[in-house]
Amino acid sequence: MGYDVGIVGAGPGGYVCAIRCAQHGLKTVLVEENRLGGVCLNWGCIPTKALYAATKLLAQAATATEIGVTFQAPTVDLAALAAWKEGVVSRLTGGIADLLEKNGVEVVCARARLGAPGRIDLSSGTPIEAERIVLATGSAPIEIPGFSFADDAVWSSEDALALTEIPAHLVVIGGGVIGLELATIYRRLGSRVTVIELLPEILAAIDLDRRTVGVLKRALKGQGIEIRTGTKASGFESTGNGVRVALDGADPIDGDRVLLAVGRRPSSADLGLDASGVDVDRRGFVAVDENLATTADGVFGIGDLVPGPMLAHKASAEGVALADAFAGESPEATLAVDPDLVPQAIFTDPEIASIGLSEARAKEDGRPILVGRFPYAALGKALGMRASDGFFQVVADADDHRILGVQIVGAEASDLIGEAAVAVRTGLTLEAMAETVHAHPTLPEGLKEAAESALGRAIHAVNR
User: Which residues contact 3 (CB under 8 A, 6 or more apart)?
Assistant: First the structure.
């Protein structure tokens, strides 16, 4: 049986692409060897954020006496917490299955490889013929020399999210997004946490200004999370009741578990790409052009499998754009998502969110800019929430005042970045942001105030 579109991988890129293709009337089949929703819904974004929200209660309880609230110290039923987290995941993945069915997408559970042109070979037997094939197989965690996920003492992010135990001392290797988010969760659960980062700074792969990262580092230190940058972990040995992690040029660290979170690699192996004429770079990313087409006719790639930010919402945006293009309805000249228009949200405490250019990058590009900032400490809502750490930053073109980038470090930054993303995407000006009436008292007022600061007319902060 032939299909208009065959999609390999049912993560946030693949299942979204499949639903949109079906909405356009294209006969669509979606192939997934594991669980609908991919890594994000099952072992990544969703369980991490569920646990982040759940453990935030523990952090708030620990300081409740500051506002005159006293009660017994909370206890954690780890099995119940894990079951609740799985319930959240199951509800979402079940919803995806229902949406795929109601939109007429055929779902096949099997391992897939590219076969002859226009064919997907399946581990279950009968191959699939499709006019267009979309590869959306996502990514997997990276191992480094001296550390293997095959060893019980070394956790991947998936292992950490399984909530099998709360280590007395968790050694996190990798100071990127995943490592810091899980460090935050386990510190709230009661673990002593040490983060080892090879590079000179945490979150080095993200375009963040030093001021933003500095706020987070101070907060993490205040929470009792130790950060060691410029440090290489070279291996470990079991000590009978834990692990001893060897560090180049420094004394080893004794811990109970190692969480390896040094990044992710595209899941491009064993897909039959070479034989099908699909080019892959040395890092495993599938090469695509501006329209997400690979070097093989009729084969396309989206999500973590192709270059660009490894973010679920980027994958979904590419999936929708590609489906619209298949139906001849794409409004964009090119389908590839501009990385500067993809917001980033980091669920540490405080949260960090960003969109567009940082101040440092704008200066490196030689752009004349205006920069405005406004502190959380000057927002009544933030003070009432006991969330005064952080600030809003707006970067704009000095000539036409278009907003080029926004960084927010502070409470609910992941939600607040939505307004900023619209501003950057549509070329909104500082004046438009500053003159838009924002409800009071709310956190989004910080964006308005930062825009006013950039214009030199701040009311609730001193103009610099």
Answer: 27, 28, 29, 106, 128, 129, 130, 131
Cβ–Cβ under 8 Å, residues 141 and 161: no
Measured distance between the N- and C-terminal CA atoms of the chain, rounded to whole angstroms: 68
Are residues 258 and 284 part of one domain? Answer: no
242 and 293 share one domain: no
Q: Looking at 317, 339, 361, which one is the last position of a domain?
A: 339
Are residue 16 and residue 77 in the same domain, yes or no?
A: yes
- Where a domain ends, among 245, 262, 279? 262
Catalytic one of 169, 313, 401, 440: 440
Three-state secondary structure call for residue 237: strand
Cα–Cα distance measured from residue 336 to residue 289, given in angstroms and rounded to the nearest whole number: 8
Task: Determine contact, residues 371/380, Cβ cutoff 8 Å.
Answer: no
Q: How confident is the model at residue 302 (pLDDT cuts 50, 70, 90)?
A: very high
- Cα 12–chain centre separation: 12
Alpha carbons 68 and 332: distance in angstroms, whole number: 55
Active-site residue 313, yes or no?
no
* Count of residues making up the chain: 464
Average pLDDT of the chain, as a whole number: 96
305 and 405 together in one domain: no
Same domain, 330 and 360: no
What is the domain extent for residue 217?
A: 154-262
How many domains does the structure of the chain reveal?
3
The secondary structure of 34-65 as a DSSP string is S-TTHHHHHHSHHHHHHHHHHHHHHHHHHTGG
Q: Are residues 171 and 245 in the same domain?
A: yes
Q: By C-alpha distance, which of 415, 443, 414 is closest to 353?
A: 414
Q: Which residues, listed in sequence order, are joined to residue 194 by a DSSP beta bridge?
A: 171, 226
Q: In this structure, is residue 11 part of a structural domain?
A: yes
Q: What is the mean pLDDT of residues 164-170?
A: 97
Taking only the tens place, the pLDDT of each residue in 195-246 is 999 999 999 999 999 999 999 999 999 999 999 999 999 999 999 889 999 9
